[in-house]
Design goal:
It contains 10 helices and 6 strands. By secondary structure, it is an alpha/beta fold. The chain folds into 2 domains: 153 residues, 3-Layer(aba) Sandwich (Rossmann fold); 62 residues, DNA polymerase, domain 1. The chain has a 6-stranded parallel beta sheet with strand order 3-2-1-4-5-6, sandwiched between helices. 34% of the residues are buried. The N terminus is likely disordered.
């Protein structure tokens, strides 16, 4: 990794945001969409707590955990179609204060991008609907079928952002253990918030800082980056 001298100007801090459950406040939407599909599969609705405890990618495996059995292909396609239809009915809402937070970061010279494993075209549309496209250097979703980990996409995302990105000055904010793993893979600093699709007990297994809000995630993450840079100087 490139080591800067104490007198050199450090690279700008970069924040790579996650989308679902992080910038987008859609936990309740996801639970409602899942529950809308369960009666046809012979199952009772689940609670938010159960959703957070069991949620994982790919979603078909998540259904297996919820139902206690694997879905047949026809069942899966019907459930997935119904889930997405219900989800698409719901307006895109950001976490409280998220847009103001991002605008403040931009004014401070912090560069921001978004990486999600949601389908790319849908992601671009939702981010536009939320009114934050102009605050982001880059928006990347997955171009093809579901993948089990964000780590390869994170490496490609940082590379696409350009040579000005220093992984050691990059903060990854998400709501899953996988976000933390992806951050560590590229040498970035992960901070997870507990208001998303995954519960606090699961997130604690990642061994990284956990916070309640995006505002706390930003403050803590930038402090950690600054602390690490001072220690390395």
């Amino acid at each position: 990794m490139h080591h800067r001298t104490a007198s050199s100007t450090p690279a700008p801090i970069t924040i790579v945001w996650d989308w679902n459950g992080t910038l987008r406040a859609d936990l309740d939407d996801h639970v409602a969409a899942l529950n809308a599909t369960l009666p046809a599969l012979g199952a009772e609705p689940i609670t938010v707590e159960t959703y957070q405890a069991l949620h994982r990618m790919p979603i078909r495996d998540f259904y297996t955990d919820v139902l206690g059995r694997a879905l047949g292909d026809e069942e899966w396609h019907a459930a997935d179609t119904a889930f997405l239809a219900e989800l698409n009915r719901r307006p895109v809402r950001l976490q409280p204060g998220a847009r103001q937070l991002m605008m403040g970061l931009r004014a401070r010279g912090v560069r921001q991008s978004l990486l999600s494993l949601a389908p790319h075209e849908r992601l671009v549309t939702e981010v536009s609907q939320a009114g934050i496209t102009g605050l982001l250097e880059r928006v990347d979703g997955r171009p093809g079928p579901s993948v089990p980990s964000k780590a390869p996409a994170m490496a490609a995302h940082l590379q696409s952002l350009g040579a000005w990105v220093d992984p050691a000055r990059t903060l990854v904010i998400g709501d899953s253990v996988d976000d933390a793993v992806a951050a560590r893979t590229v040498g970035a600093v992960p901070v997870l918030h507990i208001g998303g699709l995954h519960g606090a007990a699961r997130l604690a297994t990642a061994g990284v800082p956990l916070v309640d809000t995006l505002q706390e995630a930003v403050a803590l993450g930038i402090a950690l980056i600054t602390e690490q840079q001072l220690a390395a100087a």
